[in-house]
Every structure is written in structure tokens, then in C-alpha cells.
Amino acid sequence: MSSHSTDKGPAVNDTAQEAAGNSATADTRISFKRWLVKNLRNPYVIFTSLVQPIIFFVLFVEVFGAIAGSALSEALGPDISYVTYLSPAIIIMSTLSSAATSGIGLVDDMEEGMFEKMLVSPMNRSAMFFGKVLSEVARIVVQTVIILLLGYLLLILKNGAAFDQYLRTGVAGIVGVVLVTVIFGGAFMAYSNIVALVTRDQEATIMFANLLTFPLVFISSAFLPLSVLPGWIRTVAVFNPITYGVDGVRAIMLGQDVMTVFEVTAFGGIWNTVVPAVIILVGFNVLLGSVAIRLLRRAARSKVQ
What is the mean pLDDT of residues 213-229? Predict the structure, then answer.
């Protein structure tokens, strides 16, 4: 780093320095508000968050509901409706769609030059990332609650069942479902932003999102019990984070241990599923989030210098 003196003042660094700015909390709030407004103004985001889950939910119930009944009764008992069984899959799949496209906004900022403007500002680099993540979390929370209500409406129309037959852990279960969903979404948000920072291309980000995420949905316990699926799918499902997201939400909704890939008996009841699922999903968050933040800081250094 070099410096030179001017006639009227002290030495000035040639390399740009990070100036003092707001606190990290204030920067996170500014970033959160910016991304929230940007998402609300994007019709593609509204469609994938609200309209697409409704279409998938109705289609899957009508197409698979009739043929999945016997397999479901064999695996979990005759009193479990396919609507209740499917709701966790739709919640996780919709969260996956939202989270896996998180990086598109970042690429959009890069192409419009906004990313470089943010990097040369005194804004905290981690706050830039966390504010974006929080805006995605807000979207996932709203989306999850809407799908839960839609599932209950479908169940009423088909069977006229009570709410406690749909969500057997009651109101506390809603909080649990949202928490597991947010933790699950965090891992794929980080993945999407990693792809965006590496490729810096919208089409590549969308391609990698679809290439990885949709096959993973079908290689999991999302739509049918793993016990009725081929052996190689059960093997791959052990390493698939979607399996743990679906099993965690499903255990809370059904009020029973539904872990499909290995057996845990240390915690009792639904916690034998929820605790291992959350631990594994947090591990994915730490791993992928660390990589995303490191790439964001590296991009910041390369642009500022």
C-alpha cells in the first residue's frame, strides 16, 4: 500500500480504506429493508412464494393422494391423511424454491453495478449478507404460515377434520414448523449465494439451483415413505438435507417420531426426529454460510483495492 503527500494536507492512501459508518445492527436493518422492498416489487418472487405452492399442493393431493393411501397406512397408520402427510413436503419444497433463488438478487445487483457501490460504502460486509438473509427469512415465514392454512383448508374440504388432527402439536407446533423451515432455508440460501458469487451470472445461478434442488426433493421422504422406495434412494437420502427438513416438520405436525434414515432413541417421542434433524441442518448452515461470507469478503477486497 503506497501513499503520497498533497500541498495542503497530510498523506493520502492510494488504496481505498473502509470508512467508519453505522453499527453492524443499523447496517443489517438497512440491508434488510432494501432487500424486502426489492422482493416485494418483484412479481417472480411473489409467484414462486405464494402462487406456485398452491398449484403444487392441489396437484400433488389430487394426483398422488389416491395411490399413496395404502403405502401411507402401512408406514404410519390408517388415521394419517395424505394432506397432512404432504403438507411438510410442500412447505419444504416451497422454502427450497425461495431459498435456492436467493442468489439471483445478488447477481442482479452485480450486473446493475449496485454490488460494487455497496462494497465501496462503509457498510459492514457481514451486515450486507445477514440483512439479505433476514429478508428471505421473512418471506419464508409468511409463505410457511400460508401453506399451513391452505393444507388445513384442503383437509376440511376432503375430510372435515379438526385442526388438532392436522397439526397434532397445536399452536406451539406452528412455531416449531416455522423454526425448522427457517433453519432449513438458511442452508440453501447460503448455497445459492455461493453459486451467485462464483458464477456472477443469473442463468448459471438458476441452472445450478434447479439442477440440484428438484432431484433432491424426489430423493427424500417428501412424497412417499422411504420404506416403500428403492434401496439406492434410501442410501442417498441419508446425505440429503431435504430428508431432515421434511422429517423435522412432519414429526411436529404428526406428533410422533418419523425419522426415516436412522433410529434415535435418546430424546423420546418427536424429539428423536426433531433434535437430530435440527443439528444436521444447523451443520449445513454453518458450513455453507461460512463459505458464502468468505466469498463475499473476498469479493469486497478485490473490488475495493
Answer: 82
